[in-house]
Every structure is written in C-alpha cells, then in structure tokens.
Amino acid sequence: MNGRIHLKNMLFYGYHGDLAEENRLGQRFIVDLILTLDIAEVAQTDALESTVDYVRVHEVCRQLVEGERVRMIETLAARIAERLLADFGRLSAVEVLVKKPSVPMKGVLDYVAVETSRTRQSV
Fold first, then answer.
1. pTM score over 0.85
2. Which one of the listed residues 8, 99, 100, 106 is annotated catalytic?
C-alpha cells in the first residue's frame, strides 16, 4: 500500500547563490517534500519505527540548506533528494521543491524554484 508524506513550506536560512552578495548576506529558502513509501506496515502497527520519522527528515533538510554552500539551487535540490534516499531506507521515491523567494534581479516575482525527483532505482 503506497503512501505519500508531504512536508510543505519548511523555511531555512542559507548562503547559496552565484553572486557574492548572496554568499555574504544569505537568504531564506523554502523546501517542499513529497516522500513515497509503503505504509502497509505502519497502518497495522501504528508505530514510528514502521515509517519515516519526518522530524529527522526535517533535520536532514536543515543541515543541507544551512550547511555547505552551493551556487545553484538545482545542486541543493539534488543533494536533498539523494541524502533522503540514502538515509531513509523505507523511501521508494522523493520529490523535492526548493524555492528561492529573494532573487537578486530586476522585476517582481514570488520566487524561483527548482523541482527534482528521485527514485531508489535512479540513485
């Protein structure tokens, strides 16, 4: 029985970007996740050990966004997806959306975002 866990609008502060100002000042990044896994066992046991602990998932995302600097949010999104699949064996697929709301450009927009997905078979 497949299920999907959604974590939406996780807000972190990081120093990612191609411009020196972004690396010096930092900015907010918003991360959305959809985690796919078999939920048959947890539906029967009602036990945390039978699923993915989304508190730990949030912590992995926080470490990656607030940790090592990258120039492109594409890189950040890929690292999040790959790390989650590596750390959580119950996951069969991960979808990651990284939003960058403070884009240093002329013009008005809500955010720029990159979305990627990985399956256990693709890693």
1. yes
2. 100
